[in-house]
Amino acid sequence: MRRVKLSCFLLLLVFVFACNLPARTSLPPTVTPSPTVTVSPTITPGPTAYFTVAVIVDTNSEPVSRAQAEILISDASAIFSRLTPFGFQLVDYAEDSTGGSTNSIAKRYVAAHAGALPNGLVILSYGDSGQAKLYGGYSGFVTAPAGFRNTFVSPTVGSSKIYIGVIHYSHKYAACGYNGTDTVQSRVSVDGECRNQPGTACVQHNGYSMCENAVNNLYASTPTYFAATSVIHEFLHSFSDAGNMDHYATPECNSRMGNPAGYFDFEEAERMNGMCPDVYENFVKSYQP
Ligand SMILES: [Zn+2]
What we know:
Layout lengths: L8 H10 L30 E10 L7 H15 L5 E11 L5 H11 L7 E5 L6 H5 L1 E7 L17 E7 L25 H4 L5 E4 L2 E4 L13 H12 L14 H7 L8 H6 L5 H10 L3
Parallel strand pairs: 1-2, 1-3, 3-5
Antiparallel strand pairs: 4-5, 6-7
Helix pairs in contact: 2-6
Zinc ion binds next to loops.
């Protein structure tokens, strides 16, 4: 799989920023690419089309139930449909206990479902070498059987691929006091946590120890918001080829968006799921039913 190494450093950066920046209320610049943005959420139209996904749980990493997967994709769809005319639709749920690389998990699924393939696969897994567990997720694709045509045509890899997001379902956004382990080691942040500021207070939020000044952030708004935003983030990577430079507010992104050097708006970063706004435009233009 491509982009295994293009893990979500900006997302990581955003977590880190999450621990230090005060909440802001200023409106962002008009960078939202969506024609569906409205002044009132009560009149927001629903998606006009769906990017279909199958969720595959790598049971060698952690169990995720069908009901949890349904909520995850529903949440991701709600977030995505506020930014584009599209939503996500769960069309299959599968569990894989064979293991191996996430690419091999994807290939097994594709081989077994050749007649009814979705646009994308969400593989809930710690990832190859634990990369998803470390960063939250990563992206890739698998080549579909001959005759398959993806209705979302990537500007970089065309229409013959099925897009993959490898997602760490229970990822701890703004984790505090864990020091790289699965259990709390400290009541304050240690090592690189909370924007590399040791001593930041930890509080219980969403069922784990979180940097105190991150609890009001969008990504912390529900226990599964971070996994949902990661689904969007990782799929979007397949619709632009600058890798980590397609993240929000990178020098390349700011240049492409006409923003000043160093521009960064924390709330907008999380609302954009950590991706450069122009990648959403690529995605919208990719739809060729
Ligand atoms: Zn990324």
